[in-house]
Amino acid sequence: MLHSPGYEATTGRLAALGERPEVIAIRHLWAGYNHEPVLEEINLSVRELDFIGLIGPNGSGKTTLFKVLLGLLPPMRGEVRIMGKSVRQGRRYVGYVPQMVEFDQEFPISVWDVVMLGRLEQRRLLQPFTSKDARIVEAALRSVDMLHWRDRSISDLSGGQRKRVYIARALATEPRILLLDEPLAGIDPQMGSHIYELLQHLNRTITILMISHDIGAIASCVKTIGCLNRRLYYHGEKQITPEMLELAYKCPVDLIAHGIPHRVFPAHPMEHSPSPYPPASKPDENGCHD
Amino acid sequence: MIEALQFDFMRNALMAGVLVSIACGVIGTFVVINRIVFISGGIAHAAYGGIGLGYFFRFSPTLGAIVFSAAAALGMGWVERRTRERADTIIGVMWAIGMAIGIILIDLTGGYKADLMSYLFGSILAVSSNDLLVMLILDIVIILLATLFYKELLAISFDETFATVANVPVDAIYLTLMGMIALTVVMMMRVVGLIMVIALLTMPAAIAGQFVKSMKKMMIVASVLGMLFTSLGLWLSYTLNLTSGATIILVSGVGYLLAVAVRPLLKRLPTTHLTST
Q1: Which of A91, A106, A126 sits opposite B165 (nearest CB)?
Q2: pLDDT above 70 for B181
Q3: What pLDDT was estimated at residue A8?
Q4: pLDDT value, residue B87
């Protein structure tokens, strides 16, 4: 992997990133449910304008990690700081895009009102929303190209459109950090590339941390990538080493490399049988210009 | 109906129907979209314990019902939020115990229990001007709370996780909602009786929810539908000499079934431009 063309460039950029301030600090974190740890000894330092993708199989603790970062689950051990503050204080800087919102399909709420809820943090009890909130909501909806859907009911939207609305809601909180849980789950490739273009654009000003079980989806856009499966394997690099994947997935890695639009492995001879994975979308469709 | 209006009790009954429908529309909307119909039924039935308590210790059964339903509302709300599993079992248990306490206490109370049945099946024709005043005040309180905490109530109903992360005091808002349900339930007991409270609480809101796309509109439409159903039910019960509470519920039920039947026809219309983008 040392001979891979983009490697020096990546490390050079990472050296520059290393000087940026730390926005999320996770130290010796253990977390889980009913005294059963799902996450063990997690250490992660997210710096400003990072774009980190964490992959891991289902049940690897990805969502648990997000719950801890959002203050929804207290750690069993260890410490988490966001913008140098405790999670409860620091989560105001975090915009969260859930994998999906479990709501009544008939829930009577418009796209506009969903995104307006992103302003709740700024408008406490008994304070009404203001025209400033409306401007921010409008800008957020425009940035995800959903402004013309503002008066539609959320139940009228497709999965991809709903995802964009949730991204807009997260943006309406004016976040410094964006957490995305499976941003492409249940979304067709075209919409997926649109969302990734948007995320790369947002990454100019916002730090992004993203989790997914789908390595192909995540690898093509992020700056750095890590593997999570109870433990975190992350070295601040773009490429996943076979060792990391083997530790995380505990499966033969050479099956995974083929058919992925953006190669995350060093090139190696194609002597194995064809990949069991369906061919992913072409790189240019993926909307990533890395 | 016109000649019926010369009677005070009939005017009061109509007025009570209107006032109760307002609370029903607002609170019923929250009950339906939060899917807490079962809890609402539990609150209504547990209130019977308070009625028994009132009879036994010789104070106002309505006051007892308020205390018991408020306690049940807070207890059930707390269980719903804090217990990971089988919250519905615990709520069912509280529902039954409340009811049983009421029955036993009434057994133990000697003497003639004149208006006992009115709590079970409603007595809209016996509503006094004082009752109307209490209903008006409760309406004002409910509308005030729903207006003041509208965005928080919407937030916890739609996406509780997001509301928590936005540092909304989710538990406090939720328990406030529970308290509002308790007040509404006691108020409705006069009209349809505690056994049929959940029907009148949910049906107008459920109908409204099929046709409107915002929580506020759902409340308004549900309130208007409630007024329609109670007035029509009252008129039918007067002309056909039937029990008013049950007639009101049946009218609402017919309205609900009609709405369910009509809806697929309406749904075909606006779907044409859905596939764009």
Answers
A1: A91
A2: yes
A3: 42
A4: 81
A2 belongs to a structural domain: no
Nearest to A120 among B157, B166, B213 (CB): B166
State residue A284's pLDDT score: 41
In-domain check, residue A27:
yes
A290 Cβ contact list (under 8 Å, min separation 6):
A220, A221, A262
Chain B environment of A106 (Cβ under 8 Å): 209-210
Structure tokens at B215: 């929580």
Whether residues B155 and A120 touch (CB distance < 8 A) is answered with yes
A 10 A CB-CB count for B229 gives 27
Residue A216 CA neighbour count, 13 Å, CB half: 19
**Residue appearing with tokens 């308020």:** B66
Would an 8 Å CB–CB cutoff place A33 in contact with chain B? no
Q: List all residues 6 or more positions away from A198 whose beta carbon is below 8 Å from its beta carbon.
A: A143, A144, A164, A167
Residues 6+ apart with CB under 8 A from A89: A82
Average pLDDT for residues B19-44, to the nearest whole number?
A: 94
State the complex-level ipTM. 0.85
Residue A109 lies in a domain: yes
Pairwise CA distance, residues A102 & B159, whole Å: 8
Give B67-94 pLDDT, tens digit per residue: 999 999 999 988 888 876 678 888 899 8
**What pLDDT score was predicted for residue A236?**
78
Chain B residue with the nearest C-alpha to that of A128 = B151
Q: Looking at the 3D structure of chain A, how many domains does it have?
A: 1
In a domain, A1, yes or no: no
Q: Which parts of chain A register pLDDT below 70?
A: 1-18, 101-104, 217, 240, 245-290
Q: How far is CA B25 from the centre of its chain?
A: 8
The pLDDT, as a whole number, for residue A265 is: 52
Residue pLDDT, tens place only, A218-247: 777 888 888 888 888 888 777 767 777 666
Which residue, among A275, A54, A281, has the nearest Cα to A188 in the 3D structure? A281
Strands A51-55 and A36-47: unpaired
Q: Which structural domain, as residue segments, surrounds residue A242?
A: 7-286
- Cα separation, A83 vs A212, in Å, equals 24
On whether the CB atoms of residues A154 and A109 are closer than 8 A, the answer is yes
Cβ–Cβ of A94/B155 closer than 8 Å?
A: no
Closest among A161, A170, A109, A162 to A140, alpha carbons compared:
A170
CATH code given to domain B3-271: 1.10.3470.10
Burial class of B146 by CB neighbour count within 10 A (0 to 12, 13 to 18, 19+): buried
Tokens for A138, please give them.
């409008």
Per-residue pLDDT, B153: 96
Please, are residues A27 and A79 in contact by the beta-carbon 8 Å criterion? yes
Which residues, 6 or more positions from A187, have their beta carbon under 8 angstroms from its beta carbon? A159, A160, A163, A195
Q: Determine which helix (DSSP H) or strand (DSSP E) holds A140, and give its type and residue range.
A: helix A131-143
Based on its alpha-carbon atoms, the radius of gyration of chain B, rounded to whole angstroms, reads 19
CATH of the domain at A14: 3.40.50.300
Residues 6+ apart with CB under 8 A from A24: A44, A45, A46, A69, A80, A81, A82, A177, A207, A209
